[in-house]
Amino acid sequence: MVSVIVPVYKAELYLDKCIKSILGQTYDNIELLLINDGSPDRSGEICDRYAQTDERIKVFHKQNAGVSAARNTGLMNAHGKWIIFVDSDDWLEVDCIEKCLKLINEYHLDFLQFGLKRVDDNGRVLSADGKETAVLSAEEYIRTGKIGICVGGGIFKADIIQAANLRFDTDLKLGEDQLFVYRYISKCKYCNRINNLFYNYRANAESACTISNPQECIKSIKAFQKFELRRIFEPYIQRSILRYFLYPIIRSGILTVRQIYILIQTEKFEMLVPNRKIEKIFLNLYKCSKYAGIFFLRYTLS
């Protein structure tokens, strides 16, 4: 059996599509765990309505504590051999689970990651991430540079999660799924990534809202700095900090380049965020020549 864990919060406009995509899978030996995280809209009612029509659905209503706590509730109540995480405004392709299990059983995998599409409310594909690898040991898989950082793009073995007591860090609002994926991979023997675009990720304003708080970024970078497997996953961590934390902050004007430099030095983040990487962000952002950009940066930081 496969347990599909869906944390639900303010998703009344999208929840129907999410639930239907899971219940309509060509592989039907599933349980769907809907974790209503104190949603103030009609999401909880929608969950209950579906639970009355399909015995595979379990609904948990809890006070709002964030997506990590909701996912942890799902993990503590899941009974499947395999675990899939889906956000409540996203959806799966109809043959996702069937095809994943076929590969898992054929190659005796502990972890299978698949492709994601980023789509708008009209279903238009904005971007796609469909990298693939051969079947590899965990060590080889890490070296490929192709690990997906979102829990939504993979299928996890429940026994490994429970044996290692893996849970999501409820203190973090950014990067918590990435740390979970890294810890999980470190416990695996064989991994694989396929280019099938099975997961549809909806682009909306809610997804970007946490970027507006630099303190959340700092908290997450500190968590990466203390991460016990940091050196093994360092290239991935550096890339994520730059792409998902610092670049959006600089682009939005929340902090200036000078403030970012001062922040990195004050918090002693130099090992994770080398200065040359910040320079590269600046050059890409403002589309200036390398020499003009470096001159401007040195003038700004002096």
TrEMBL record:
GO molecular-function terms, A-Z: hexosyltransferase activity
- Any idea what this protein is called? Glycosyltransferase
Q: Which SUPFAM superfamilies match?
A: Nucleotide-diphospho-sugar transferases
Which Pfam families does the entry mention? Glycos_transf_2 (PF00535)
**Start and end of every Glycosyltransferase 2-like domain?**
3-125
Q: Which top-level group of life is the source organism from?
A: Bacteria
InterPro entries assigned to the protein according to its UniProt record, in alphabetical order: Glyco_trans_2-like (IPR001173), Nucleotide-diphossugar_trans (IPR029044)
Keywords for the protein's UniProt record, in alphabetical order: Glycosyltransferase, Transferase
CDD domains xrefs: Glyco_tranf_GTA_type (cd00761)
